[in-house]
Amino acid sequence: MSDFLTSLAAIVGAPYVLTSPEATLPFFRDYGGRFQGRGLAVAKPASTEEVAAIVRLCNAFQIAVVPQGGNTGLVGGSVPYQDNAIVLSLSRLNKFRSIDADNFTMTVEAGCILEQIQQAARDAGRYFPLALGAQGSCQIGGNIATNAGGILTIRYGNCRDLVLGLEVVLPSGEIWNGLRSLRKDNTGYNLKHLFIGSEGTLGIVTAAVLKLFPDPGLRETFFVATESLENVVAFLPVLRDAFGENLLAYEVLSRCALDCALEYNKSGIEPLATRTDWTLLIEICGSSESGALRQQVEDVLALGFEKELLSDATIAQNEEQARQFWTIRESVSDAVQARPGRSIKHDIAVPIAAMPGFVRDAVAAARLILPNVEAAIFGHAGDGNLHFDLVKGEAMPVEEYLSQWKQVNHAVHDVVQNYNGSIAAEHGIGFSKVGEMAQRKSPVEMELMRKIKAALDPDHLMNPGKVLQRTDI
Length: 473
Ligand SMILES: Cc1cc2nc3c(=O)[nH]c(=O)nc-3n(C[C@H](O)[C@H](O)[C@H](O)COP(=O)(O)OP(=O)(O)OC[C@H]3O[C@@H](n4cnc5c(N)ncnc54)[C@H](O)[C@@H]3O)c2cc1C
What we know:
Blueprint: H1 2-12, E1 17-18, H2 21-28, E2 41-43, H3 48-61, E3 64-68, E4 85-89, E5 96-100, E6 105-109, H4 114-123, H5 140-146, H6 153-156, E7 163-169, E8 175-178, H7 192-195, E9 204-211, E10 218-226, H8 229-243, E11 247-254, H9 255-264, E12 278-286, H10 290-306, E13 312-315, H11 319-330, H12 332-337, E14 343-344, E15 347-349, H13 355-369, E16 374-380, E17 385-391, H14 398-402, H15 405-418, H16 434-440, H17 443-456
Parallel strand pairs: 2-4, 3-4
Antiparallel strand pairs: 1-2, 5-6, 6-9, 7-8, 7-9, 10-12, 10-13, 11-12, 11-16, 14-17, 15-17, 16-17
Bound molecules: flavin-adenine dinucleotide.
């Protein structure tokens, strides 16, 4: 192995090859610490050419390559689990290559942090509409590799909808330059879509051309309280009729999820006077006159009360208050993880109208296994995407609760399947859902995926064991 490490250091420079346990630990453990991996080293290249040279070297030594961005993924996908593997960290590929404000595009390297991309777009008088709780540390390469969703998907789509072109280092070590900034291009198969959402199993994204948008303008942010998930479903078309495309975010929190967030943010004040089982955080944009937009919001809230869909509402009075509202929402994921025993997580999507039935059945299914669990449910209700996290009841020992993780996942995913939903709405399959996915996709779909993997990565060296099991190829 010393030959391999010497050659690796020759490519990236000795300071950028990490091998000691202390230095590699943060790269070998996933966000939240559920998945503790192991491997040979961490390599930190600074250019696409260096990435390609590393991949060729790994091919020669049959060493597996695990691409890693901000390591904020929640399914164990960015961590290696074998001795003969390296983490290839994209963090030094962080250049903003160009911005074309007139063509509404930006070309960035994979290691650029999402929040910095949003800021760079704003600095150019443009808007990049991918937004999620981990935006201060996740990287655009990771967002593309997971086809990230987030809070603005209802208006702008998933990451897939925001990418015009890609540069990818293939498992062979060749570089595919697909950095096109075209809005229309039907020349053959659209290869970029193969890599978007492939979770680092088909190649390493090194750069991307992103779509930019005009700034959405004035915004109004408001919390509403409601008694049922049926009301959450019924209020959505009321808002869509009123605001059309200008509905930016429609985020739901169950009582337990909101309580976790308020406890976690010690300064977090209960946003609404009325305690209900469900709360929505909504953001809309539009009219150039602030008074007119506020009036429209008040009108639609009045309609919601009239239809008996809402129990209470509060509109942020200024940007600072809107920020505080969002802090509550964005902290839920970490807040739930901070509970004793953390939480048994699910990232599911069902047709919007099926959300109430899904939650009823999934809570019942989980409680057959763990009678005292509470459901901290939060997420992107406008997309039918719920993070269905189960927190431990007071009396249950942590070990007993955690020992049921897989069984509970399976039972909840059965319910998802009954509602024709997805067991991985936005976080991906990673390491944790490989078996669950294989049991639920049709043989035809699994076989197609295996053939694609085998065609691009015959030696299964690119993020092995993620998305597909090795025995699958
Ligand atoms: C608090 C919190 C909130 C979150 N909210 C959301 C949300 O609203 N929506 C959402 O979709 N996700 C959310 N996530 C999950 C996570 O942030 C996203 O999956 C994100 O896109 C991962 O980016 P990353 O850079 O951290 O990737 P990593 O975690 O480093 O990697 C994720 C996967 O992508 C692969 N990968 C990383 N970089 C590359 C690359 N350059 N080329 C090829 N493969 C690569 C890895 O091998 C791994 O399989 C949240 C996470 C946290 C902690």
